[in-house]
Amino acid sequence: MLDAALAQVPAALRVPDPDGRIPVLVRTDAAAATGEFAAHLAAAGVEFSVGASFAHLDIHTALAALPTQAWTPAYQARKPRAAETGIQLEPRDGAWVAEATGLIPLPGWPPGTRLILRKERPHPGAQLRTTDADGMRVTGFLTNTGRGGPARQLADLELRHRRHARVEDRIRAGKDTGLRNLPFHDMDQNRIWVAIAALAADLLAWTARLALPTAAALYEPKRLRLRILAVAGRIVRTARRRLLEIDPAWPWADLITTAHARLTALPAP
Q1: In the chain, how many H helices and how many E strands?
Q2: What global pTM score does this model have?
């Protein structure tokens, strides 16, 4: 699945740099925290950030070896206020991060793999696990991103990894595009249905990425259908030109025509 996903990335973005690295980041939860998968990622030349499976790591030894001063505040992102641009970062109250690389062995993991831990006060009513310590919820991830450079502080890397949870948004969008229920009794028919639904989700994701402005690119399928896909329009040809006619009274008419112009301006694959 990883190789199929990488094959969809434009070829120009898969050109390795002099160190053999491809500017692609692969993020997963702890289900992919195996040395074999990490070795495959390293061989592919991509960076990875995978959730740490504490079932195979002596996390308590690492926590005991970390001094208090090793923990730094974690970040959280907030929406920009007036007169601000871009996502704003600020310290997250009650959450800290620290690097535990070298404190416990990581057999089978590629050279340069780093272990970064996060501890946070649990939410009211949350139950602690055996891997938690001192009343704190402890999580972690492994990455081969090196030290130094912009956006490579521990808090930046931890926030970057935590954002992999947006995959849940894609799952929700997939359910809204036909994956919520399988409509047939026959397995082969359901396989075809799933393939069509996956193709639809793929088309929506790439259309949003290539054609829509930043705010509209975050629309989920229901909103896309309401504002863009289900709107009546006509493609007319005149004076050797092809024009898209949309009712100018529609509130999102400019968004539709802008998206259409961006798509038609793209070179043929």
Answers
A1: 8, 8
A2: 0.72
